[in-house]
Amino acid sequence: MTNSLSRRSFLIQSAAAGTSAALARSTFGAAKRVRVHNPKSPAGAAGQIWIGGDLQVNRIGFGTAELGGAQGWVSPSDAAARRAVLRRAVDLGVNFIDTADIYGPAVAEQMIHDALYPYPSDLVIATKGGQIRPGALSAGSLDGRPEHLREACEGSLKRLQLEQIALYQMHWPDPNVPYEDSIGELAKLQQEGKIRHIGVCNVGEALLAKARSVATVVSVENHYNIVSEQSDDIIALCEREHMAFIPWSPLARRGQGNAAADLRLAGLQALAQERHIDMPQAALAWLLARSPVMLPIPGTVRVDHLEDDIAAAKVRFTKKEMAQIG
Ligand SMILES: NC(=O)c1ccc[n+]([C@@H]2O[C@H](COP(=O)([O-])OP(=O)(O)OC[C@H]3O[C@@H](n4cnc5c(N)ncnc54)[C@H](OP(=O)(O)O)[C@@H]3O)[C@@H](O)[C@H]2O)c1
Questions:
Q1: Which of 28, 79, 102, 194 is most buried, taking the most CB atoms under 10 A from its CB?
Q2: Per-residue pLDDT for 274 more than 90?
Q3: What domains lie within the chain, and their CATH numbers?
């Protein structure tokens, strides 16, 4: 039982839709579809995609893991510079911002609020809960217990000063908690109107199916780029089911060290030279051409790098060029 066509999830959906519609009015106006304000913007050049069928976003977003810093503290001057990056992203037409309560921790969400509140009415903020220690995963880094996810969601609503989070994502599956219990709690928060749409991260097909057995999942955020192609099956499923696929670490800054990946990277480097673009732009253009459900979220603390990344939105790789890269 995996698809929202099933009677039970249809009931969940309509119940959630009923309740969240009431509250949605406060966040996004009556639960109508919200279109991108400026599809002609630099970010709009990448085209648009619908999140959950009712929130339209330009297909190049912005990731905020870097903004939060690692020690939970950012100097006032750095904080000011990073707020300027957020405002510049919105000026360039970015209306999808990926964040998490653990970025900082709690710093990136607060920074998004301080830089952008009151938010443009088409801005989709996608946050996450379930990781409780920043950085590389280790024992004790995750907490997928329903009570923790509820607390985490409430904390994000408060920091972002929102009544409803447009897209709330389960950060990582917690091996110590049945995944259905974690996602089940997000479905309850959705029924209460605190979450509009539910997304999952770092999943394979089996866990995605478990999540979809208890809630309507509208997006998957996995590690994916030109050198790490572990999610091709998930992307195919997202295309079939009209879900968004959000590749994290889209710029492929860290090689994978396998021959096939290095060959693809070399192919991309050659094409980037031919097209007079740099590698971050080529990596993003490759993702945008790879699938129409792709929603890359490059991250940076620098305005010049942001402008460089967003400029990739207008780069089109042909089918022949994509085949050339392999
Ligand atoms: N769901 C998850 O588990 C998960 C895990 C990791 C990340 N994420 C999300 O994915 C987002 C992006 O992933 P990521 O930060 O790992 O990797 P990324 O966006 O692929 O790369 C970010 C790095 O690239 C640099 N950079 C960005 N644009 C550049 C440019 N034009 N030229 C040169 N360097 C450039 C940044 O440095 P500067 O700041 O110096 O520009 C930063 O070090 C994160 O912000 C976060 O929102 C999610």
A1: 102
A2: yes
A3: 7-325 (3.20.20.100)
